[in-house]
Amino acid sequence: MKQLDITAIDQIGVALPDWVTTYLLKPWTLYQLGIILGCYLASLVAASWLEPILEEQARRLRGNPRLLRAVVVALRRTKWFILVFLLWVAKWIVAANTWQSRSYIISLAIVLAFVWLALAILTRVIRNKTIARTVAFCAFAYFAVSVLGIREEVSAFLESIAVPLGTFRISLLSVISAVIVTVILLWLATAAGRIAENRINRLEDLSPSVQVLLGKLVRILLTILAIALAVSSTGIDLTAFTVLSGAIGVGLGFGLQKVVSNLISGIIILGDSSIKPGDTIQLGETFGWIKDLRARYVSVITRDGREYLIPNEDFITQQVVNWSYSDNYVRLDVDFGVSYESDPHEVIAIAIATAKSIKRVVRTKQPVCWMTAFGASSLDFKLRFWIEDPQQGLTNIRGQILIALWDAFKANNISIPFPHREIIMKTPVDIRSSPPADKPQKPPRNAVRKQKAD
Question: Considering the entire predicted model, what is its pTM?
Answer without folding.
Answer: 0.48
